[in-house]
Amino acid sequence: MIGNSWRELSPNGNLIDVENFSVYANRVYATGIYQHIPEAVLEQWIYMHHDNEWMIKNYAWMDYTTVKFELQEWTVEQLQGVKAIDAFENSITGIEDEFNSVCALEEDELYWEQYGTWRVPPIILDTSSVIGKAPTSAELHQPYQLVEGHSRLRNLLISDYQNLFVAGKHLIFFMQALGD
């Protein structure tokens, strides 16, 4: 089930020739409807993974005109309780792995080394805010589900497990559905 707002948030073009992110963001914000969605959320998730089958199955049904994204600070202990959909669960396990084997970009690795946290906050859904609203096809794990940022969370868990430098608090985008 694909909701109207997910369709409205679709990047123009196709996988080979998609519109530039800044053009996309300007177009989305110009509607006057989605200014509450942080640019980092648009870029790392909706723009990049809009056509991903798992994103469509689990999140395309939501009404993004009423979804709230709040920047919060969480501890490692809080983040250890975050779940992922079954298809991505392996991407946040394997804490015995080497840290640098899961960094996507060199700038991310350098940021980790300097600050002990991620450069771009991941997106975590408060699944209690969507219980009773979601279609049965959506896979939801309580209490919190990682929407985007699997490698980042894995880096944090690896760093903590291996007693590497880890900051005390980590920024996340906390996602909640506020509408009916």
How many structural units, i.e. domains?
A: 1
Determine the N-to-C terminus distance: 17 Å
Mean pLDDT: 89
- Low confidence ranges: none
Q: Which percent range describes the beta-strand content?
A: 15-25%
Strand order of the largest sheet: 1-5-3-4-2
**SSE order, as H and E?**
HHHHEHEHEEHE
- Largest sheet features: 5 strands, mixed
Query: What share of the residues lie within helices?
Result: 25-40%
Radius of gyration: 16 Å
Structural class: alpha/beta
By DSSP (H or I, 4+ residues per run), the number of helices equals: 7
Total number of beta strands? 5
- What form results from the Cα inertia axes? globular
Please explain how this structure is put together.
The protein is an alpha/beta fold and 180 residues long. The protein has one domain. 33% of the residues lie in helices and 15% in strands. The protein has 7 helices and 5 strands. It has helices at 4-8, 21-30, 39-49, 53-59, 76-79, 106-115, 150-161; strands spanning 67-74, 82-83, 123-126, 144-148, 170-177. A 5-stranded mixed sheet has the order 1-5-3-4-2. The longest helix is centred in the C-terminal third of the chain and has 12 residues, at 150-161. The protein starts with a helix and ends with a strand.
